[in-house]
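Notebook entry, structure prediction.
Reason for the run: the old model in the group folder had no record of what sequence produced it. Starting over properly, with the input documented here first.
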Amino acid sequence: MHQRPPVLLAPLSHLLAAKLQPLDQAASSILAAVEERKGGGGTPLVKATAKDFVVGRATCASSSVVTLFPDRMEYKFSHSTQGRIDMVMFTKQGRMTVVVLMCMLPPDVLLQDMVAPELDSKSLVLKFHVGKPLRHFVDAYDSCDPAHVLALTFHEKADASQFADALASGCKLPLQVVGGGF
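New structure, fully documented this time:
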C-alpha cells in the first residue's frame, strides 16, 4: 500500500487566513454600514400613537406607535394584502443604500423620503410626499402624482405638537404647520 505524504495544515491555514482577512474586513464593514443605514438604533426624539394611516390610495385604520429619530421616522402599516409593513421614512438627505419599506434601493441613491411635510394642528394629520415608488404600494401610490401622499393622524394634540417641534429642531426638516398652529 502506498501511503500519502502528510499534509502540512499549519502553512495552509496561515495562507488561507491571510487571503480571507481582507474579505472578512470587507464583510464586517458592509454589515456595519447596513446596520447603521437601516436604522440600527439610536435615541428617539419622540414617540406617539397614531391611527388612520394612508399611503396613496391604501389606508390602515389600525393604531401604531410612531417613533421619530434624528434621521428617520418609523411605524407599522397593516396592509390589506401584504400584512404588516415596517415603514421607515428618512428625514435627511444623504447618499446611501438603505432599507426603505423592506426593499433595497440601488447604491448612491439621493435619499430623503419625507418631502414637503405638513401638519394640520386641527385635524392632527401629518402628511408628506415620497418622491420615489414604494415597493409594497405599487398599485396604491404614484410618486409622480402630487395628490398621492403618506399621512397619519395623531391621537393627541400634545403628541402632534411634540412631533412638529422635533421635526423642525431635531431633524432640521422644514415643516409647514396649518390650521392655526399649536
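Summary: The radius of gyration is 23 Å.
The old model has been moved to the deprecated folder.
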